[in-house]
Amino acid sequence: MTDNYSTLAAISPLLLLLIGLSITVMIDPYIRREHRRVMLIIAALLVTLVAQNVLDFWVEQDSTQRVARTILGIYGYSVRPAVLVLFLYLFGTKRRIWPFWALVGVNALIYSTALFSGVSFFIDETNHFLRGPLGYSCHVVSGILLFCLLWITIRAFRKIKRAEMWIPLLNALLIIACVLMDSVFATNLRYPVTFLTVGIVISTVFYYIWLHLQFVRAHERDLMAAQRIQIMMTQIQPHFLFNALNTIRALYAKDPPMGDRILEDFSTYLRQNLETLNRTELIPIKKELEHTRLYAEIEALRFPNIRMEYRIEDDAFSIPALTIQPLVENAIRHGVRSRKDGSVIVSTAREAGGHRITIEDNGTGFDPTEERSDGETHIGIQNVKARIEQTCGGTMVLRSEIGKGTGVTLFIPDASEKGKERKL
User: Fold this and answer.
1) Which residues have a Cβ under 8 Å from the Cβ of 220 and sit 6 or more positions away?
2) What range does the domain containing 150 cover?
3) Is the CB of residue 380 less than 8 Å from the CB of residue 330?
4) 39 and 171 share a domain?
5) How far is CA 419 from CA 282, 357, 391, in A?
6) DSSP notation for 177-232
7) How many CB atoms lie within 10 A of CB 71?
8) Among 199, 220, 241, which residue terminates a domain?
9) Is 342 part of a structural domain of the chain?
10) Fewer Cβ neighbours under 10 Å: the N or C end of the chain?
11) What secondary structure letter does DSSP report for 97?
């Protein structure tokens, strides 16, 4: 009866922790569905490890349960490394995780030999556990996996405060300390749950809390980026509409029938593209070029000295909405509008790792390091630069020379190349 009470007292806190962890994971709004599933699997495996410890503690007292102790030992040594591998799924390493599962499989095979050999461990006639020549395979494999988990954790969250990195490090040290405590006290104490199992459960709870903080921080960053993009969109759209309507108004003063036709075309375009303009996600470049052509054609009616040229060699990719049009608008308004023979060239080309977009003009040019006299400092260009960086990992290079013109080069990486540095 005393043993039953001691067992209950030992496992109750652990089971309550795991139940609380499972409930928290299920209602956590910041964790992804696949991550939630992994965490629940980890919690379930830890419950089975606690049960394995308790069953082993009970059958140890009955010398006729040697086979049962062997099977329980195989299960415990096989599952512990698997728990560490499951944590790696939280860092997007699903495609490169097979070597770790191979280690887990080899470890399980080694301990499975306990059914017919003592190479890993065996239970003697008195029902005592004896370790074989490969009896520390679980420790070695778990150590490798623990090191890999720490390295991937630090790599994934290397930009956070250094003080926060102590949490996963202390978890690893706690597990190592529990292994040492089991080794020291195994022959002197009988306890229903090993120090290692206690350490793994506690570390899992703390590790999840730490991950939750990172997920919340990432969510806040994404939210702030989306808000910045939306603010930029609200700045750009009224600017474009104002200039287009002013152009049509000026056209009505010269040629009302032409004004009617252009207004009808413009209304049709707005009706078809309103949804696209209000989205912050990427759109096909063909739609953006259509948007740009409409603006340029309307401007050309007011300024017949402007010539637009399109050299489109690559149109099989997507970009943020209102990327090219503001740059063309900037080239017309601040560059070629005052030229006798103004020219704006829009070109696209496929390059290694992505797509290049160039907008060049033969306008008045400017000094990129100086602010405009009206204090705007080329807001449209800076908005485009910020949006392509935030939405698709793109880059922008601006070149301008007073009296000769301006060139803007955008590079939009392929999806597989996002995040990699690119110099234009």
Assistant:
1) none
2) 2-220
3) yes
4) yes
5) 16, 19, 11
6) HHHHHHHHHTTT---SS-HHHHHHHHHHHHHHHHHHHHHHHHHHHHHHHHHHHHHH
7) 18
8) 220
9) yes
10) N
11) -
Residues 6+ apart with CB under 8 A from 154: 165, 168
What pLDDT shows up at residue 378?
Answer: 58
Q: For residue 309, is it within any domain?
A: yes
Tell me, yes or no, whether 235 lies in a domain.
no
pLDDT in tens, 205-236: 888 888 888 778 777 777 766 666 565 555 55
Report helix, strand or coil for 158: coil
Residues 293 and 336 in one domain: yes
Q: Residues 263, 370: one domain?
A: yes
pLDDT at 355 over 80: yes
**Where does a domain end: 220, 238, 266?**
220
Q: Give the amino acid at 248.
A: I
End-to-end CA distance of the chain: 76
Cβ distance 145 to 81 under 8 Å? Answer: yes
For residue 404, the domain's CATH number is 3.30.565.10
Amino acid at 104: V
Averaged pLDDT, 77-104: 83
Which of 330, 383, 387, 334 minimizes the C-alpha distance to 359? 330
Q: Does 237 reside within a domain? A: no
